[in-house]
Structure formats: C-alpha cells, structure tokens
Amino acid sequence: MSDRSYGILGVFHHSDAVEEAVKGLRGQRPADITVYTPLPHHDIEHAMARPESPIRVFTLVGGLTGAATGFAMPIWMSLDWPLITGGKPIISLPPFVIIAFELTILFGALATVLGLFVNAFILKPKASHVYDPSFSAGTFGVFVVPAEGRAEEARAVLERAGATEIRSEAVDA
Amino acid sequence: MATVTPPPAAPPPRRSPTHPHVGSYAQVNRDIFRMLSRPGRGWWMLFIPTLAGVGLLGFAFAVQVVLGIGMTGLMNPVGWGVYITTFVFWVGIAHSGTLISAILYLFRAPWRQSIYRAAEAMTVFAVMTAGLFPIIHLGRPWVFYYLLPYPNQRLIWPNFRSPLLWDVFAVGTYFTVSAVFFYIGMIPDIAAARDSTEVRWRRKLYTAMALGWTGTDREWKHFSRAYLYLAALATPLVLSVHSVVSWDFAMSIVPGWHTTIFAPYFVAGAIFSGLAMVITILIPMRKAFGLQAYLTPRHFDAMSKLILLTALIVTYAYATEYFMAWYSFEVPERNAFFNRAFGDYWWATWIMITCNAFVPQLLWFRNVRTSIGALFTISIFINIGMWFERFVIIIVSLSHEYVPWQWGTYMPSWVEIAILAGSFAWFFMWFLLFIRLLPPISVAELKEVLPSPLRADGAAAARVGPPADHGPSGHEGVR
Q1: Could you give the C-alpha distances from A56 to A61, A66, B295, in angstroms and in order?
Q2: What pLDDT does residue B469 have?
Q3: Residue B256 phi, psi (nearest 5)
C-alpha cells in the first residue's frame, strides 16, 4: 500500500500564501498538487505552470469543420435540386459564405464547450470530497499528494506559508 | 506650543478602483446570493402581470391561427408589419449582451464585471422573444420547420440564396452561442451558489447545473481558455447577426431599403438599443436589491458613453440616408424619403429622430450620465425610438413601394398590438425568473477586480470588509 492514497489539504486566506505554498511544493517532485480557488487567479496559475490548455485545438478543428460544412451543405443541396433562381448560377458562392461563416462560429463554439468538458473533467456526478464549500466563497485550498516519504516536508511547507488549517484527506478512488 | 502627534495610522485597506465599497470575497457571495432567495411581494406584483401578458400573447396568437392572418392589419403593399418590426427590435436588444460580455471582455474593459451577466441573460431572453416573431408572422406557422435543411419527402431543399434563410442560420447560431456563452460563464457561480444555499431544491438544481465544478486550478485554466475562445467567436457573430438581419431588407430593391449602409447602420442601432435596454433593466434591479456598491455611477457613466457613441453613428446614418436620396437624383428614393419625413407616417419618423438622435445628446453632460433618474428616462426614450426606427424602415418604405396606385397605409390590428405587448411580458417573465434563480451578477469575475487578500493586510482586514460597506456611503455620487 503506497502512502500516495492520502494527501494533505492546507486551507489559506491569502493568495500570496498560496503562491508561496505552491512554489515550495513544486520544489519537491513528484508531488501532485491541486489548488482550489474561488476565482481564476493569475499569480497562482503562473506558480502552478500547467501546460497550455488543448482546448484551442478543439476550437480550431470545430471551426474548420463548420466552414467546410457550411460550403459543402449548400453546394450539395443546390446540386440535388438544381433550380435556377434570379438567373444566378446553381453554385453561387457569395451567399454560401454567409452560411459557412455562421456554421464556423457555431461548430467552433460547440467544439470549445466539448473541449472544456473533456479536459476540465467536469461533468462528474459528485465533487471530490477534498473540496470544501468555502473554496467557492473566499478561501483557498492547496491539496498535495506528496512523494513517498515526504509527507512531513509537504506539511511543513504548507505550515510555513501560513495555512490556517491543515488536514489529511484520502485521495478519491 | 505642544502639538499632539497622532498615533501612526494603519495603512488604509486596499480598495478596488472599480468597486471601492466591496471589501472581501465573502461579501461578494453574501450580497449577490442574497438575491437568490424567496421572492417578496414586489416580485410577485411584477411577475403575475407578466404571466397575464404571456396569456394575452397566447390568446391573440390563437385567434390569428384559428381565424387566419387576416386578423392582422397586413395587406398589400405592406406585407411586413408590426411582427417584423418587433422581430428586428428584439434581435437588436439582444446585441448589447454579447457586446458587453464578449467584446468588452476581449478589450479588458474594467467596468464589465458587474453588468455582463444581466446583459447576457437579456440577450438570451431577447433572442427567445425575437424568435417567436418570424413564426407568428407565418401564414401557416405549423410548418415553420420547412426553413430547416432536412431530408424530406418533397425532395427539395431551402434556397440558400435567400436572405431569409441566412437569417435562420444567423439567428439560430446566435441563440445557441449566446446561450452556451451565458451558461458556461455561469458554471463557477452556480457552484458557489450550490455551496452557499440552504434550500434543498435550490441545492439540487445548482448541483446539477454546476456539473461538478470545484474550482481547481486545472478547471480554471481550461475554463479561462474556453471562455476566451467563446468570446472571440461571439464577437464577429454579434456583428454578423444584425448585418444579416439588415440584408433581409437591403438585398431587395424597395426604395428606402436598398442601401449598402444598412449593415453597419443596423449593427450600431442594435448596440444602441441593447445598451439602453440594459440600463432600463439594471436601474430597477439595483434599487430593488440594494446593489449600489456593485453598480456604481462609473458603470452607468461608461454605458452612457457607449450609448452616446452609437447614437452619433445612428444619427450619421439617418443623415446619410437623406443625403444619398437627395444626391442620387433617384426619383423613387427621393420620394421615399420625402414621404418618411412628411407623408402619412411623419409622426413615426419624428418620434424616431427625436428619441434616437436628439434625446441622447443630453449624455454629453456628465451630470446627466451620473444621474440614475435621468438615465432611466433617456433609456426608455431610446427603446421607444428604436422600435419606431424599425417601424419607419419597414412599414413606411413598403407603404410607398413601387407604382403610386399600389400605395397604401397600414395600421396594426388589436391582435398585433396584443402580441407586441405580450412579447414584452414574455421577455420580462424570463428575466424575473432569472434574477431569482441564477446569480445575476458574476461572483467569480467580481472577485477578480477586488484586490487579492495578502498576508500583509492582516487576517482581520482580509476577512472583514471595510466599514459601512452597506451603509449610505454605498450611495455616494448617486443623485
């Protein structure tokens, strides 16, 4: 049984304390850190230094799919029922640009949402039990699953940074 | 002479430049989630009339369906009347929501946070209202789905060269993307509401709607990126939607409609009317819920400046239309514009010009921009003026369409007036439900403009707000 089934949660009231705690914990790899904040905090995000979100790929692919659909659909449908109106060619691209534009936006936006759901792992039935309702109000939480044998060290980092409360929590299965 | 040296003062608590009377993160939650409570008598006194209005809308529409489109005042040559006017009006209202939320987000405008949620809600509900009208306007509303490109027994497809079909795509996309943007942006706040409510059904509702949000750094990172991309997609969409709506007119050859300035003219007018509607809605909400610390005179001042800018664009467009009619030497065009100003509907034209071009000029004065009462009155004038702008463009142009023996005058019937009134009830019904069910001001984004709580502030200052944060100082600068 590895001791990685347990983590340590520190509760903070100050954002700079969270920053310090995160920087201190990042020093001792391989620690698995999760920060709970009531707002997107740039300094904390910077301290966490997570890789760039892949959502942009979803947006791009969705948008391009929409553009392609927006041209392909009217072209195919116009050819399927080739009725000349107003003396214009069957495939009149300028009006189809409008359809393509709108579908680019539509597909791009829906793909972005899909990307968010897939990457942020929301849509889970229950919040992690580590989560404390005060994290959405005004306090910050730093949850760390320390590397083997370094739990005491992690606890000390949280304490030094000024955690007002420190407790052990089981990691979600 | 002995002077008493005052004791060294503690440094004043750091304040947000935009919300100086909001002290702490916890206060934001308290003040905003107070609105998500059991409504009082005032709310019911507003809500029940809106239900009655929606009933009136349903009744009038039923009469029209049973007895036929002849129940309206529509005739030759005026085949587009109050329904299409009101459709364009509501699509226009819908514009400022995404403008405020998406465009001001991209520009990092510091006055956006307090107003954007209500503006987005207004957008979604306004599109829901606008969407009723093309269907109500159909002679056979039960076959509205013919507009959608779906495989059917008739083996035919919609005409993609028709501006009306572009409208289906533009308005449909606008509704979907606005609703998604509205909901996604609200997820962290719904989670916060979930954590703060004691009421069981609310907790169940918010738990379901929050989709398991816990505010981890990973969630915030992806959320922030997704929100940015949605804003970037919504911005061109806003501009495109009202352009497409304007092409419903500009693609035709009706004098008064066939003009290239219609797209920017309509977009500016839409933003103009939408901002006015935001002010019309926010001022009573601010008063009812005591949100003076969140909706400060600074917010109203900034919105007023945008209204003034768009009013100038609209005024310029009016002038350009008349100039082009005169300068082009086109007899039908000149006649159309002479008829607008001095014909059967001269009153509508002058209501439009007075409300949209002259009244907003008052906003040049700072005293007016920071006076809540004056702003509310001006915003009502603009709402009226912008409805009449669409009335003038649509009905006056059609009434003097081509050859003179075909001219005619149209007046809306009681069915059309009832449906127009009912559309306002429908819109406000949704809005009233919204302010009691979902956080009407963004909690997470407001926290972003407050100073971060730092250890240097001391534990007490970070947790307790500045003194008198609910007191009369919150009304400072409001007359």
Answers
A1: 9, 15, 34
A2: 38
A3: 100, -20
Residues A22-54 have pLDDT tens digits of: 888 887 776 788 899 998 888 888 888 888 889
The verdict on a CB contact (< 8 Å) between A98 and B244 is: yes
A81 and B156: CB-CB below 8 Å? yes
Q: What share of chain A is helix, strand, coil (3-state, %, to 5)?
A: 55, 15, 35
Cβ separation B218–A80 shorter than 8 A? no
Give the three-class secondary structure for B208.
Answer: helix
Evaluate whether ipTM surpasses 0.85. Answer: yes
| DSSP secondary structure letter of residue B364 | G
pTM: 0.89
Exposure b/e, B104-119, CB count within 10 A at least 16 = b: bbeeeeebbbbbbbbb
Neighboring chain A residues of B453 at a CB cutoff of 8 Å? 13-15, 138
Prior bond of B7 cis (ω within 30°): no
Chain A contact present for B157, CB below 8 A = yes
Tens of pLDDT, residues B292-333: 888 988 899 999 999 999 999 999 999 999 999 999 898 889
B307 Cα to chain A: minimum distance (Å): 27
Are A92 and B158 an interchain contact pair (Cβ–Cβ within 8 Å)? Answer: no
